[in-house]
Amino acid sequence: MSPGEVIRILATDADLGPNGEVTLSFPSPNPLFRFTKNGTLLVVGALDRESRDSYELVIKASDGGTPQRENFTTITVSITDINDNTPVFSASIYTNSILVKDAKEGAVVLTLSATDKDAGNNSLITYSFSEGASPYLSVDSETGAVTLTSDLADVTEDTTLELTAMAKDQGQPPLNSTAGVVIKLRVNTLTEGVVFENSSYNFRLPENQPMGTSVGAVKASAGGDHDVTYTLTTHTDLFSIDASGALTAKEPLDKETQDWYILEVEAVDTRVPPTSAVALVKVQVEDVNETPQFSNESYNVKIFSIAPYKSPVIQVKATDPDIGESGQLVYSLSAASDYFDIDHSTGEVFVVSVTALAGEEMALQVKATDPKGLFATTKVEVEVKGSASSSDIVIISINQAANIVEKKVAEMEESLGKALGWTVKVIDVSGSSGSNTHGHSGYRLSRGSSKSFISFISIDGEDVVSSEEVTEKLKSESVTVKAELEKLFGEGLQLEVEEEEGGPSTNQATVIALGVLLALSMLGLLLMVTFTIVKFRRIKKHQEDSYTESFDIGKPSNGYINTGMTTETETTESETSASETSERARSDSKSSQVVEPKKTVAHSVAGNGTVTNAHTSGEDREEMEIMGKDSKSSKVETNITDVGETSDNDFL
Q1: Is 601 exposed, middle or buried (0-12, 13-18, 19+ CB in 10 A)?
Q2: What is the dotted CATH code of the domain comprising 5-78?
Q3: What is the pLDDT of residues 268-293, one digit of tens each?
Q4: CA 614 – CA 628 distance, rounded (Å)
Q5: 293-385 under CATH 2.40.50.320, yes or no
Q6: Spatial separation of the C-alpha atoms in residues 410 and 393, rounded to whole Å
């Protein structure tokens, strides 16, 4: 894994093509982390475990489809410690005085104390003497306790032991620091001088306590009838000491400013000449959970009712003087809203849907809460202007990625306003893969795109400037507009005014026209189906009547045979039978009443396969039968085809 890489995260999408291409990002810009195109999480800022040892990151996975689909998850990044802090002693020099006659082997003379801000083995400290080792003293490597190795019976005169103590951590490589150790061995009790009861003192003081708060007390004695006075030699601006040795704070202390103070107190007796002693006092400032604070008591902002979902309204900011996890704030709305919501980590208030609030004002109360439950609130007054419509929106495109543009929305509004001479309000920013210019989910699409579409409206006083007028001015002042935007995004900026294919009025007319055509088409189809059903029933009834007459042999014929047509038949016995049959048919025809109805063509197929035609007449169609004398010896097939009412066949 390369330096700066944390982990590679894989997100999948079951769709194909652009709909299945997943991009990882953060819901809001993160100054310390970012994602590469292949989903690798990179560290791009300096991380200090001593300031913060872990990060909860909200990750967004979004596809390239329209509408864009998103999913969110959370990961925890723990910061691994490196040995970058040196152990720090609580004092630069440790001193004490011992009466030889009171000395006992193993007695603790003083205790060394050092701290290391690192973690784990990097913070484990061992103590030792690096210089000036003495046969009378030893130090515990773990606790730092300096003890006597004998009862000092061989010490016959006042002796001063000066040593150098070293505190070393166990990191790789190990780091160390040193402090001085001065031990005075006194033989003569009459001249022993002033001595502190303890060579060092440790006190704790909660932060932000009022002036005059007691820190602790030190005690020294001079023996006999001699008095002792105390003097504070360090941090006199923050602490004071009285004649009894009581220490007090002169002003409130802030742990976030400094969490340790090392004081030196000197005790002087009234001997002539006087003797003195110095004790070290370590004061630790303890953290007290403090209430967050907003930078403003209230905020006022104006938006338009056409603002889409996720359009930013305003970003509020609160600070917490606490350090570590106690200073991590969560933003929320005091009361749930159907119109607005807030990003819990950034404090950005955004639009859910404000169409119903057109022309109204709404007050939101935003709350910032720390992990221990302390919170602060601020008021956000939102005026929703309803004078703008989607037809007033103008769209321009520039050759910049959407995630770059969205970081500079405020500056871009100022630059466009300066060039156009109006107040500009950006409604939406989207990438080049977005197909809907007014339906984007506001600042959330195609962050990796190299081209961005910027939707905005212009306001002149209290009036919204029409898109036609804005577009015209964008074209006439294109040089000025481009120059202003290049100040934000650099040279080589490509600016285009996006012309929509058909504005809202054209689209509305198109919809109306299509609706009328559709209605007419449906009406025509209904009439055609109705007419077809009626005609089909008439034809079916007509055919049934025709078939009934054709096969009713006992019914006398009222038709006639056209003598101009001949019927050829092939018989198995004699051609004479066929002739007689034909002659009989002619005779019957002449004796019948002749009427001129529709003509019917009869195709007769004789036994030899010859097709003959005969015209018949009658109110209804009949089938002509050609019969020989001996029906068993002849074979005749007849097909009837209606050639009348040809107009009906156009529907069949």
Answers
A1: middle
A2: 2.60.40.60
A3: 988 878 888 899 999 999 887 778 88
A4: 17
A5: no
A6: 18
